[in-house]
Write a structure and sequence with these properties.
heterodimer; A: 321 residues; mainly alpha; MetI-like fold; 2 domains; two-stranded antiparallel ribbon; 1% strand; flat; B: 304 residues; transport (chain B); transmembrane (chain B); MetI-like_sf (chain B); transmembrane helix (chain B); MetI-like (chain B)
Chain lengths: 321, 304
């Protein structure tokens, strides 16, 4: 079910294990035409990346210090830190949104991710029907989060939803509108998000577990470790690269959480999230670009923590001479 | 050979103990997995069950019953009434060019940073990878305003600017997904032997021939995996069309499904049928290309 980059490469084309020959000086051998080809190869994608990803990111930072209704470019006025003061002091959904993002992260990190790991560990044993179980748990990963919102809406509705029927509350005054009731809807949305996230984590850990050298486990067994000790002291630490990826994915998914809440009620009434607040301020009647951008910058600053962590782990070694 | 046997023993701590009593030890595991699998299938199963029942029989017998007819009428009605044909076609118009362009540009970039020694390789690769990790909402405002204020002839776009066009959605998909694909492809190309291009270099092959005739053919497995993954990613994207496309009949299916909630007001059978129809393309891709899809997902994480 799983394969890694290395496995996909035909053996004869793989880089040999022997130390590589010194490769310096190759650039000097390039002809003028090659240099032109290379600069186009690098230049075009870089230009697109800069113009459509990094320039807008910087512009978000810039716009967060301005007041603008999004109509005439000449109407952009400097506002100092007004927008930030506004969202912190006078914008009621801001703090609930921050809390919900935190809750989202904690729920994914403490429940969805460990559940995915547990499923992977159980399915990594040679049990009968492992492939079928994997396909079932993995199925929601194929679905868009927007669609997941709709599917769970059918399950959660007040009058005709299956959950209220199973709880015996359907048709009674005790029936709960799981996505509509602001005291429970964040939890209902988190269950729906877990449904997808756990399958994703399971898949990555299944690949990770296959990559753990079996002799490590044997050695631990010879030393008298039981299965649980072997897992936590030997196997889990050996999967460090995958663990890092999963930590980063979990944090970033919780910051990106948007589709599910936006499909349910556009991120209002108990489902405030930073990403949804950004969009609420950009579209619709009262466009307040400055406020929306200030919220985007808050989101950006938080996101930079996992991004920098991941990049330093991934590229840190290569950067050293 | 001994490693192979040890691996088939899976998580069992001792190889010796696996004979005889082994199947017994998994009963608890199976009970847990079956319970989880049922919980996993219930929401999907409920949607399918509701979709298969005409609204008349659910009105008569209630949603929590098995009485009455089962047929595909809801699917037919949802398809025609919901305008699915248009939405699916819009998804194709956006997804196909976006995936092809993303893979092409990412392969150029990945080749340049992985096969040629150059001072800024790592810097560029970090910039590309980081760009892909940003939450899309961070760049939404400036991109929206850029599209709105960039005036184009009315013959090109009936809004007079880039809003409401497929071009802008495709472009932003390419820019956003290119980072991930470049990262994965460059790792893949780095794992290819340097002798391959060294030999070509001795033969006098230029950069373009090395890329086109040596590296590209070897990258086919990576393209298959990434291509499958990107088709699903872009097909499933909800946000960018929501931001840029205002007229409902130009939305791709994933974004349009939200409007069905209003359109099929309180007819949950139709809504369920619409949801199931939307799942079908991903399901087909998953069943046909499961191996590629899974390979694509794990490719990105194989290096840390």
């Amino acid at each position: 079910m799983s394969s890694t980059a290395q496995e996909l490469i035909p053996p004869e084309a793989r880089e040999p294990a022997r130390p590589r020959a010194i490769k310096g000086g190759r650039v000097r051998r390039l002809s003028g035409r090659d240099k032109l080809v290379l600069s186009l190869m690098v230049g075009i994608p870089t230009l697109i990346e800069l113009a459509l990803v990094w320039l807008p990111t910087l512009m978000s930072v810039g716009l967060s210090f301005t007041r603008w209704n999004g109509l005439d470019l000449a109407d952009i006025h400097s506002a100092g830190t007004e927008n930030y003061q506004f969202i912190a002091q006078d914008y009621p959904p801001f703090w609930p949104a921050l809390q919900h993002n935190m809750l989202w992260l904690l729920f994914l990190a403490l429940i969805a991710t460990p559940l995915g790991l547990l499923l992977a560990v159980l399915l990594d044993q040679n049990i009968r029907g492992s492939k079928i179980y994997q396909s079932i748990f993995f199925a929601p990963v194929m679905l868009s989060l927007a669609l997941i919102g709709i599917i769970w809406q059918l399950f959660y509705q007040r009058d005709n939803g299956l959950l209220n029927f199973l709880l015996g509350t359907a048709g009674t005054p005790n029936a709960v509108d799981w996505f509509g009731d602001s005291s429970v809807n964040i939890w209902a949305a988190l269950i729906a998000a877990t449904w997808r996230h756990a399958g994703y984590v399971m898949l990555l850990y299944l690949a990770g577990l296959k990559g753990v050298d079996p002799s490590l486990k044997e050695a631990a067994a010879i030393d008298g470790a039981n299965a649980v000790q072997t897992f936590f002291r030997v196997v889990f630490p050996a999967m460090r690269p995958i663990n890092i990826v999963i930590v980063v994915i979990t944090i970033i998914e919780s910051l990106r959480a948007f589709d599910v809440v936006y499909v349910i009620n556009r991120g209002t009434n108990g489902l405030e999230m930073l990403s949804a607040l950004v969009i609420q301020n950009l579209v619709g009647e009262g466009q307040v670009i400055g406020v929306g951008s200030a919220l985007a910058v808050v989101l950006l600053v938080i996101s930079l923590v996992p991004i920098v962590f991941y990049l330093s782990r991934t590229f840190g070694k290569e950067n050293q001479p | 050979m001994s490693i192979a046997t040890a691996r088939t023993a899976g998580n069992d701590t001792t190889i010796l103990s696996r004979s005889g009593s082994r199947p017994k030890r998994h009963y608890g595991t199976h009970i847990f997995l079956v319970a989880m699998a049922v919980m996993w299938l219930v929401p999907l199963g409920w949607a399918l069950f509701t979709a298969l029942r005409p609204v008349a029989s659910t009105n008569e017998h209630g949603y929590f019953s098995v009485a009455g007819d089962f047929n595909f009428d809801n699917f037919v009605q949802a398809w025609t009434q919901g305008g699915f044909a248009t939405y699916f076609w819009n998804s194709v118009i956006i997804t196909v060019p976006a995936v092809l362009l993303t893979l092409f540009l990412a392969s150029l970039m990945a080749f340049a940073v992985s096969r040629v020694n150059w001072k800024f390789n790592i810097t560029l690769l970090i910039m590309f990878t980081a760009g892909n990790l940003l939450p899309p909402q961070v760049l939404a405002a400036p991109l929206f305003e850029m599209a709105k204020h960039l005036e184009v002839p009315y013959s090109f776009s009936d809004s007079g600017n880039l809003l409401n066009t497929y071009i802008v959605v495709i472009a932003i998909h390419v820019a956003f997904q290119m980072g991930f694909c470049t990262f994965v492809l460059s790792n893949y190309m780095k794992a290819l032997s340097p002798d391959l291009t060294e030999a070509a270099l001795v033969d006098g092959a230029g950069i373009w021939r090395q890329y086109r005739e040596i590296i590209m053919p070897l990258c086919r497995p990576a393209f298959a995996a990434l291509g499958t993954l990107e088709v699903i990613f872009i097909y499933n994207d909800y946000f960018w069309p929501l931001l840029f496309i205002q007229s409902g009949n130009r939305l791709p299916i994933t974004t349009a499904i939200n409007n069905l909630q209003g359109q099929f007001l309180s007819n949950y059978n139709l809504l369920a049928a619409g949801a199931v129809i939307t799942v079908i393309p991903t399901l087909v891709i998953y069943l046909l290309l499961q191996r590629q899809f899974v390979a694509g997902l794990t490719l990105g994480s194989s290096k840390g």
